[in-house]
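U., I forgot to send this yesterday:
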Amino acid sequence: MVRSGPDEAAQQLELKGEGPSFNRQSQKALDDPLPWLIERSLQWVWEQREFYRANGRPLSDEERNELQGYYNHAVLDVVRVASVERLSDPPFLDELRELGTPTFEVSRAAGITFVDCLVIQSLFQEQSPAWFSILFHELVHVVQHRLMGPQRFIQAYVLAWAESGHQYHSIPYEEQAYRLEARFKLHGPPFPVEDVVRQELKGLLAHGAAPETGGEHSGIVRG
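Result:
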């Protein structure tokens, strides 16, 4: 859900839930940090999503024209975009370090997706080729959210991060986003991103790359 920055890859995580404070959950986190991390990540992403829904902007006409051959109106209409001087790390990074767990420094990323809100570092000039590439990459994550359901997606993302040895570029959902972004940058004929993502996610699910949980918008599971 994160696109890496200009000098170093970074991580991201997404959506809803209310996680108790670390002080009340410290033993639980020590015993099994992944469920704790998923819970905290869901809470943080949902809070960020609510903020940027209220403070972001819709896609501009130029952005829509650049992307409409790849994404349908249901995606382009719902997203919000914000440009910020620096991305904020989640507040539980220090707690992860105390647990001895590798961390993901969102602040070094070029952009991040909070469900349907795209937040991009302002060092990338709006409407530039780099800007459009980041938009395209983050919109792949929006589609992943829509097809899997936000809670299932973040569970799958965190688990894949752990199973890959905490290697950002080895997360299947990032591999997919980077691969499709590279295809976009070739300036070939537009292709339907949602169809490609749906087909590839079915293969990931068949190989156990996502937990078997339900959730709204989980059409990839039932289709």
